[in-house]
Amino acid sequence: MNNLRNLELEDLKKLLESMGEKPFRAKQIYQWLHVKLVDGYDEMTNVSKGLRDKLAESYSANLPETVEILTSAIDGTKKFINRMQDGHIIESVWMKYQHGNSVCISSQVGCRMGCKFCASTLDGLARNLTSGEMLGQVYLMQKLTGERVDNIVIMGSGEPLDNYEEFTRFIRMISDENGLNISRRNITVSTCGLVPRIRNLADENYGITLALSLHAPNDETRKTLMPIANKYSLSEIMPAIEYYFEKTGRRVTFEYSVVEGVNDNKDEANQLVKLIQSMKNKGKLQCHVNLIPVNPIKERDWKRPDRSKIEAFQHVLERNGIAATIRREMGSDISGSCGQLRRDYLENNK
Ligand code: SAH
């Protein structure tokens, strides 16, 4: 059954009009769904029982169901396992930082991009999530923690730009002033580099931050980690990134998962400097690099380099004027994320 949370306000208005209702009803119902975050129709007390019953014939108003919450004893990070209406399981993460509460949400059940170090893609793509299911992840975390969400990263399972329609509707709805009204400046989307979609997103000019999963400074190494590198070369990706910056003025993030013996040498750091500087020096880019120590998954043999090696890599970038951070691991005592959580849950609940 379709979910009422998949409808933007304008579409909800049209639906209600077609049912012979007054337009103001749409705003009321939208507020129940997207501000008061109700789970179902029962709480919509200012909407007639007749209308609720009629809507319920074709649309559910339920949120996904949280079946497990893991809380880190180290830093308070919470990892949520949610069950969708059709039984699919996905994961989302809540992190507390000094600058506010950040959540990381999934955009698909599984993924078809095939990155070699990522657990989300091991069994391929099950299905896309709807915009309502993406919103639902944020709403559940806000409800269950009782705290407001400040920042959103779409960096959980799935490739958001491979689910473009639902993902962009999610962006419009989460930042809608009639809903949670989260500033688009506080939203980051991460992509493995679907070039035409990066350009589409630049044209939409939502003002969200783009993070590109680079993971290697040349096509050859990139292909060993990411099958998508066979489809789009860096000579296509980099101009698309420039285009995104040119259109939006937003500083771009390059994610670089550091894997021992694969992409962690000084030589690779220097290649990365060259790749980025060619754009920076022409004023075509403001960016920073986020180094992610690879999170080993049991199905594969990737190893995390020593901390000193990752720091040496970082220093090469910094010495050349490229801002670089090493991602701090959150909730390391409650299982990794990026699809590992979902896999663990499914294995333990067979
Ligand atoms: N499909 C999107 C979102 C993926 S998750 C993308 O490709 O960008 C966010 C980031 O975590 C990506 O950069 C992804 O490559 C990285 N990642 C996934 N699994 C990882 C692991 N086991 N160790 C380190 N980084 C990982």
Structure overview:
The protein is of the alpha/beta class. It folds into 2 domains: 59 residues, DNA polymerase, domain 1; 284 residues, TIM Barrel (Alpha-Beta Barrel). The protein contains 11 helices and 14 strands. The strands form 3 sheets. Strands 3-4-5-6-9-10-11-12-13-14 form a 10-stranded mixed beta sheet, sandwiched between helices. The chain has a two-stranded parallel ribbon with strand order 1-2. A hairpin with a 6-residue loop joins strand 3 and strand 4. It is globular and about 70 Å long. The two termini are 26 Å apart. The mean pLDDT is 95. The site of S-adenosyl-L-homocysteine has 17 residues, from strand 10 and strand 12.
The count of domains is 2
**CATH domain class name of the largest domain:** Alpha Beta
Number of helices: 11
Strand order of the largest sheet: 3-4-5-6-9-10-11-12-13-14
Give the bound compounds: S-adenosyl-L-homocysteine
H and E string? EHHHEEEEEEEHEHEHEHHEHEHEH
CATH fold-level assignment of the largest domain:
TIM Barrel
* Major β-sheet profile: 10 strands, mixed
The level of helicity is 25-40%
Rg estimate, integer Å: 21 Å
Average residue-wise pLDDT: 95
- What is the terminal-to-terminal distance? 26 Å
Strand percent estimate: 15-25%
> What is the CATH homologous superfamily assignment of the largest domain?
Aldolase class I
CATH architecture of the largest domain: Alpha-Beta Barrel
Total beta strands: 14
